[in-house]
Amino acid sequence: MGNAPSNEVGGLVEGRSRIYCERERTVTMSRQLRAWMTCLSIGAAFLAGATFPERQDAQETPAPSTAADQEAVSQELAEMYRTDQDDRKDFLALDPAAIHEMMERDKQRLGRVEEIVAAGTLATGDDYYHAAMILQHGDSPGHYLQSHVLATAAGFEGHRSGKWLAAASLDRFLQKIDRKQVFGTQYFKSGDTWTMEPYDTELLPDAVRAAYGVPSLEEGRARLKQIGDR
Prior knowledge:
Elements: H1 8-47, H2 67-87, H3 96-118, H4 125-136, H5 141-156, H6 162-176, E1 188-190, E2 193-195, H7 206-211, H8 217-228
Antiparallel strand pairs: 1-2
Helix pairs in contact: 2-3, 2-4, 4-5, 4-6, 5-6
């Protein structure tokens, strides 16, 4: 603390300032305490197995009650994945009208996958991977981040392409929020030129890219040139 003002007005100003600061500190601590208690309540509810309201925009889908029901969900996801990939055969040759039609089908697949994910009905590595790929073809940071989480789970379940999709969805999420991709999986056309920018080429070594099944930095650049030469 500094020396008190020598005059009465100065002392009054300092006193009021002190009271204001103490009041602000008390309000801040109170807010922090409420936030902390909220986190503790949510954590306790989670450990107790409580459920929370589903997203407003995703209709509730009953969880499968039998193995046959679960198999039906897995088959539906596999079929959506198949049509998603069929839509993207020779993607660079698609004209604007074909791309628009594909995006409309993407929205339908995305809506159904969001319902399945919200219902907690993903059971296998294939389920996680198929759902993650549909979300990778969404249109928001939330879709790409959710794709990253599900692809990571697919990798945990032993899916051979899960790690690659985890890297690709992270790159897409980062670029969607105006950050640089870090693995080098995303290619964009800017005017007449294909690019990977924004791209932080120094954050990760090629050994990490290899661990995720992603081509090396030089291989990625060669791929970029190949795309540009088409």
